[in-house]
Amino acid sequence: MNEFTAPPPGLDEIPNLEYMIPDEDLKDAGKFAFPVAEDDIVFTIDDDIIYPDDYVERTLGFTDQLDLEKNTLGYQAHAFVFKKQQDSLGWRNFAFGKKCPQIFKVDLLGTGTACFLGQNCPTLADIQPCAGFVDLRFSRHQTNTGVTMWSLPRDEGYLTNNLPDGLWDSSLFNTVNLKRPPNMKNEVRRLLNERTPHSGLKLEKVLKERNTPPL
To answer: Model-level pTM?
Structure first.
C-alpha cells in the first residue's frame, strides 16, 4: 500500500488478506515484496485491471499443458518477431483486453496478469532496481532461470482496463515508460539479447520445433 499511513476502513476484517505499508514507494516492485514458498502458485495483479470471477481457475486450467516448474503464464505479453510487411524485427503485442486464439510463446510478460511458481519468483532486491518497469526485469529473470513465458488464449474483453481518465497522468506508463529512462533502455537491450528461440510461435509449433512432448 504505497504512500499509505494506515489501511482503509474494513481491510483488517478480511481474514485471508495480508497487507503491507512500506517505508518507501516501491511502485510496481511492491508485487515482489512478499516472501513466497517454492511450491506456492503466485498471481501478480494490477489495481487498474478488472479480473473475471473465473480468472484463477481458468488460468490454472492451462497448467495441465504447461507445467509451472518450467513455464510462466499470462495475458499481457509481447514477442519480438520478424514482421514481413516491415521486413524487420519488431514487437508483436498480445494486449490483455484483446482476443488471443492460441497459446503463444513470448519474450516479455506483464506482471499485472502473470501466474508462476514460487521457486521462479524474483526477490524484491532482484526487481527493485527496475521499479516502474518491472515487467522487463521479471521477464529476464524467467528466461535466465530456464522458464518459458506464454500468452494464454482468451476472448475479446475477457480482461478489461479500469484506469480512470483522471489518473492517466500519474500512471507508471505515463510517468516512467513513455519517458524511456536510460536504465529502462538498457533493460530492453539485455532482454532482447537473452531471449530464447521461437518467439511468437503457437505452442504446437514450439513443441514441434523442440521435438518434445507437451510441457
So the answer is: 0.91
Query: Comparing C-alpha atoms, which of 208, 72, 78, 83 is closest to residue 147?
Result: 72
Q: How many CA atoms lie within 13 A of 175 on its CB side?
A: 10
Kindly state the DSSP code that residue 70 receives in the 8-state scheme.
T
Quick one: pLDDT at residue 171? Answer: 66
Whether 57 and 51 have beta carbons less than 8 Å apart is answered as no
**CA 14, 17, 21, 25 torsion: positive or negative?**
negative
| Whole-number average pLDDT of the chain | 92
Q: 150 with 106: CB under 8 angstroms?
A: yes
Do residues 214 and 148 make contact, with C-beta atoms less than 8 angstroms apart? no
The whole-angstrom distance between residue 120's C-alpha and the CA centroid of its chain comes to: 13
Q: 10 — alpha (psi -120 to 50), left (phi > 0) or beta?
A: left
Cβ pair 151, 74 in contact under 8 A: yes
Residue 49 DSSP label? E
Q: Do 199 and 150 meet the contact criterion of CB atoms below 8 Å apart?
A: no
3-state SS, residue 115: strand
Distance between CA atoms of residues 128 and 28, nearest Å: 9
